[in-house]
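Sequence, please.
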């Protein structure tokens, strides 16, 4: 059954490109930057082109197509259909590109990542690369370095390991998927003793790296996956004693680490904290907002990538920043794709689990056969991939690792590798080598390639000009010119014209000679941003601010109203509306607006605080006080 079809030379290239994507993705900051994401998407398109060539030239080609593949195809088609009704096209396009990347990687993994020599090289390369990333994270912690390659990671992550990612949670997400593969190959793989020594050290380094990320979700997911692995070992007489010792040691080590680290205690405490103004754990608040969003469109959801676009209408007062994602992949799936998309996903996950259980009978050795001479790399791959998916499944409850391109890519490829082993269980999942089936697959591949090519060229051009703009001083003529080219090559992008408008507004607000010209230019850029995304409140807000700066207060009024209707719980919007009332000379109305801003968020709201102190004094009102302590703020 394993000899599915004659191996075409291009199959090796597809396997190589898939492996390259899995290994290079984490090095490109996880693919979160546009250039890295576009590179991964372009390579996936190239793999699909090579697949088409194989279909055309190899008359003996047969396709492995288990039932779960139909569900992946249905979900992809559903996402493409929902894209057409999105409020923010650029955010929806990001999500569609991610779907195409992951779906193509899954189909390619099912049909090309099954040969044991290829899988062994790929898995071992992933393990040792993960050890290198973990070592880089350990180095960052020991040297208190905030560098990620040539860039600087966000200060909010402090002295936590991030490796080549910007977020420590995402490094933990990658490492937690690789660690079970390493453990599986260490205990069940057919490798020589010397190599297993290095493999053991690599697993140790990966484990330390996960711990130093201080990611609560990552540590929990790793703990669950290791427990599953140890319980699996308990079923094998040869490893029962070692598994018991490791289980007790892991529990003792975890207790000691938490007991001796005040920082870890604080991290755990924050997971259950709800009332603090400064260290608030915003995840439950974001989840509640997302659930309210889903209740408005429960069947089909709000559309791919639209959670971030619509969050402003459901924003809780405590969350003033854009969360971007829900920090819960399952809830985000429900919100954006509704009950229909969630049902397809759950059914697909069920087929994946049933397929893995069916495969287990054919590739995993019985307990009595697990000996030095009866180890199996195939068994190690199936076991490691299964536990890796359990790990990322647990972590996805509190984070958005599947939306990080490199991590999502690894997860779907592991799922594809798991499904590919169904070839050893039955012949019923094979499509016959006939022109009808080959043309059907060819049509499917051409459709995916065409959709990718519809998005990728303009995205590459826009990213190129944006990078060119970054080589010039922000606000310079060359910078504005390159940003204009980037925006014109991708009119759906609202962020580029907004950034240019904001920069020109800041320059015009210096009121140097010729400032009117700068402000008029900024207004035109804000109009372009509004045209790209009519529901973006801050473009309306800053356009009103620019009109105020030109003395056109009456004209600006409608833009502040529009901004407040789109962002009713933004302290920033109400504070700027207060500035508008001061420009008009209406101090009482300005006091009302600043009070609203202060009521929404008082801590860190320096603009509202400073103006309220002055306004209350001018209007003869009681002085401003701290809402929590009641102390007067002078």
């Amino acid at each position: 059954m394993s000899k599915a079809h004659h191996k075409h030379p291009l199959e090796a290239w597809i396997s190589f490109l898939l492996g390259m994507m899995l290994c290079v993705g984490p090095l490109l900051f996880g693919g979160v930057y546009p250039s890295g994401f576009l590179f991964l998407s372009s390579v996936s398109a190239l793999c699909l082109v090579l697949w088409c060539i194989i279909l055309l030239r190899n008359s003996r080609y047969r396709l492995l197509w288990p039932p779960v593949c139909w569900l992946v195809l249905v979900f992809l088609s559903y996402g493409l259909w929902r894209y057409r009704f999105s409020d923010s096209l650029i955010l929806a396009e990001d999500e569609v590109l991610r779907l195409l990347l992951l779906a193509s990687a899954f189909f390619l993994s099912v049909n090309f990542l099954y040969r044991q020599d290829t899988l062994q090289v790929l898995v071992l390369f992933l393990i040792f690369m993960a050890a290198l990333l973990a070592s880089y994270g350990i180095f960052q912690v020991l040297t208190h370095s905030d560098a990620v390659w040539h860039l600087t990671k966000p200060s909010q992550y402090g002295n936590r390991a991030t490796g080549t990612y910007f977020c420590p949670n995402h490094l933990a997400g990658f490492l937690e998927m690789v660690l079970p593969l390493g453990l599986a190959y260490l205990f069940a793989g057919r490798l020589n003793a010397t190599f297993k020594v290095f493999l053991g050290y690599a697993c140790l380094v990966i484990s330390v790296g996960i711990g130093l990320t201080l990611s609560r979700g990552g540590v929990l997911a790793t703990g669950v996956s290791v427990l599953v692995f140890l319980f699996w070992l308990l079923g094998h007489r040869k490893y029962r004693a070692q598994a018991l010792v490791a289980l007790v040691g892991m529990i003792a080590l975890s207790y000691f680490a938490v007991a001796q680290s005040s920082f870890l205690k604080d991290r755990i405490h924050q997971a259950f904290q709800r009332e603090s103004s400064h260290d608030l754990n915003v995840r439950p608040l974001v989840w509640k907002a997302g659930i309210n969003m889903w209740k408005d469109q429960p069947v089909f959801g709000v559309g791919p990538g639209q959670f971030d676009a619509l969050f402003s209408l459901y924003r809780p007062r405590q969350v003033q920043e854009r969360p971007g994602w829900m920090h819960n992949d399952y809830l985000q799936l429900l919100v954006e794709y509704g009950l229909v998309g969630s049902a397809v996903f759950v059914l697909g996950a069920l087929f994946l689990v049933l397929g893995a259980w069916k495969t287990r009978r054919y590739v995993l050795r019985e307990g009595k056969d697990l000996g030095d001479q009866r180890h199996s790399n195939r068994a190690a791959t199936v076991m490691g991939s299964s536990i890796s998916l359990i790990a990322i499944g647990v972590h996805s409850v509190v984070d958005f690792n599947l939306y990080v391109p490199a991590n999502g890519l690894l997860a779907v490829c592991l799922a594809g590798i798991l499904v590919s082993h169904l070839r050893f269980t039955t012949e019923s999942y094979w499509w016959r080598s006939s022109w009808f089936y080959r043309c059907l697959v060819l049509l499917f591949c051409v459709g995916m390639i065409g959709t990718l090519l519809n998005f990728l060229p303009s995205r590459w051009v826009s990213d190129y000009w944006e990078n060119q703009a970054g080589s010039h001083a922000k606000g310079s003529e060359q910078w504005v010119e390159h940003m204009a080219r980037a925006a014109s090559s991708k009119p759906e992008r609202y962020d580029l014209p907004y950034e240019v408008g904001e920069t020109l507004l800041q320059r015009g607000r210096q009121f140097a000679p010729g400032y009117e010209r700068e402000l008029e230019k900024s207004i035109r850029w804000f109009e372009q941003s509004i045209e790209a995304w009519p529901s973006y409140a801050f473009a309306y807000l800053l356009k009103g601010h620019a009109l105020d700066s030109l003395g056109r207060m009456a004209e600006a009024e409608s833009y502040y109203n529009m901004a407040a209707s789109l962002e009713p719980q933004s302290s920033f919007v109400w504070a700027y509306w207060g500035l508008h009332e001061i420009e008009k000379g209406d101090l009482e109305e300005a006091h009302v607006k600043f009070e609203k801003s202060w009521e929404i968020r008082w801590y860190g709201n320096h603009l509202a605080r400073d103006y309220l102190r002055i306004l209350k004094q001018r209007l003869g009102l009681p002085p401003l006080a701290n809402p929590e302590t009641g102390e007067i703020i002078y």
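The beta strands are 63-64, 147-148, 151-152, 430-431.
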